[in-house]
């Protein structure tokens, strides 16, 4: 490779490095804001889940609440994929699509139909590419989701469940742990009786260390006004909305963390390439200088 071509490649890689560094900084700034939103939402989401679970335990006629009516047969599954609108975030989007499609295949092998819903352009395009046209698509807000977005998604999922189009609703999203760690999470949202989304609350998030506070809480006598069934009618839509909103926020933070990590790795790789190309350019320059010296010496010797 000529020295001029090497210089051109170095310049190109340096430009790419500048872009990846800038994207890393932007992702880091957005990640801090997303973390703050998650921290602010988690106590409220936990309270809604706890109240919903307690009201469901106290209610005697849950089947009278349409959205809580548990189906005798499980014939159709609704799968919600929470992805991003953009790429350049490593395996952030693809691992959600793979997990959801794998779950859909499992349902189909057991004789059930599968209805897909997708949040984020990447999830929508991936499903369409695989020939699985989503029944609901929600895009354009994954960088900063709002509660109205969660309400829109929840309305479609609850309508599909009440109308009998699906007998179970599952949600797939990246649970945010740290900028370096995001875990693919699969949770059952509906029916409430099988909701795995309550499992973290069952473990005693409010425990004081020896479990006594949580046990006393469950033993407390609670009087409901109006009756638990009416409270459930009001709480369940809120529970579905807040659960989806929490998943959207977790996914947003995970996306920014994954993008920040991916861009940092890209910048480091670009730096390594620049070092290798610079070393190659110096070697070629040294070879050219050596060749010129040899030609000068050979010319001088021929004149003697």
Describe this entry's structure for a reader.
By secondary structure, the protein is an alpha/beta fold. The chain has 2 domains: 63 residues, ATP synthase, gamma subunit, helix hairpin domain (Helix Hairpins); 230 residues, Pyruvate Kinase, Chain: A, domain 1 (3-Layer(aba) Sandwich). The protein has 7 helices and 5 strands. Strand 1, helix 2 and strand 2 form a beta-alpha-beta unit. It is elongated and about 115 Å long.
Which regions contain 5 or more consecutive residues with pLDDT less than 50? Answer: 202-220
Considering DSSP H and I runs of 4 or more, what fraction of the residues is helical? Answer: 55-70%
Broad shape: elongated
Radius of gyration, whole Å? 28 Å
Tell how many strands the DSSP assignment holds: 5
Please give the CATH architecture of the largest domain.
Answer: 3-Layer(aba) Sandwich
CATH superfamily of the largest domain: ATP synthase, F1 complex, gamma subunit
Instruction: State mean pLDDT (0 to 100 scale).
Output: 84
Q: Provide the CATH topology of the largest domain.
A: Pyruvate Kinase, Chain: A, domain 1
Tally the structural domains.
Answer: 2
Order of helices and strands: HEHEHEHEEHHH
CATH class of the largest domain: Alpha Beta
Spatial order of the strands forming the largest sheet:
3-2-1-4-5
Strand content: 5-15%
For the largest beta-sheet, the strand count, sense and barrel status come to: 5 strands, mixed
Summarize this structure briefly:
This protein is α/β, with parallel strands linked by helices and 304 residues long.
């Amino acid at each position: 490779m000529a020295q001029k071509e090497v210089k051109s490649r170095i310049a190109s890689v340096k430009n790419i490095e500048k872009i990846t560094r800038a994207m890393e900084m932007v992702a880091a700034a957005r990640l801090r804001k997303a973390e703050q939103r998650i921290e602010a939402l988690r106590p409220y989401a936990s309270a809604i889940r706890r109240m919903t679970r307690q009201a469901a335990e106290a209610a005697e006629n849950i089947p009278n609440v349409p959205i809580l009516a548990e189906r005798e047969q499980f014939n159709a599954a609704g799968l919600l994929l929470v992805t991003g609108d953009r790429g350049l975030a490593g395996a952030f989007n693809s691992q959600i699509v793979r997990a959801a499609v794998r779950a859909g295949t499992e349902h189909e092998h057991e004789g059930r139909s599968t209805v897909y819903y997708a949040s984020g352009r990447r999830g929508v395009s991936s499903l369409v590419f695989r020939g699985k046209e989503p029944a609901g698509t929600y895009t354009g807000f994954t960088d900063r989701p709002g509660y109205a977005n969660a309400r829109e998604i929840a309305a479609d999922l609850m309508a599909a469940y009440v109308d009998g189009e699906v007998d179970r609703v599952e949600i797939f999203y990246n649970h945010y742990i740290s900028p370096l760690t995001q875990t693919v999470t699969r949770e059952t949202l509906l029916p409430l009786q099988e909701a795995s989304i309550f499992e973290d609350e069952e473990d005693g998030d409010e425990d004081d260390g020896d479990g006594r506070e949580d046990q006393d809480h469950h033993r407390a006598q609670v009087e409901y006004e109006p009756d638990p069934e009416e409270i459930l009618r009001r709480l369940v839509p809120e529970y579905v909305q807040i659960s989806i909103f929490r998943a959207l926020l977790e996914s947003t933070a995970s996306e920014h963390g994954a993008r920040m990590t991916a861009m940092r790795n890209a910048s480091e790789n670009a730096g390594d390439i620049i070092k290798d190309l610079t070393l190659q350019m110096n070697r070629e320059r040294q070879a050219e200088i050596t060749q010129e010296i040899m030609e000068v010496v050979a010319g001088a010797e021929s004149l003697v």
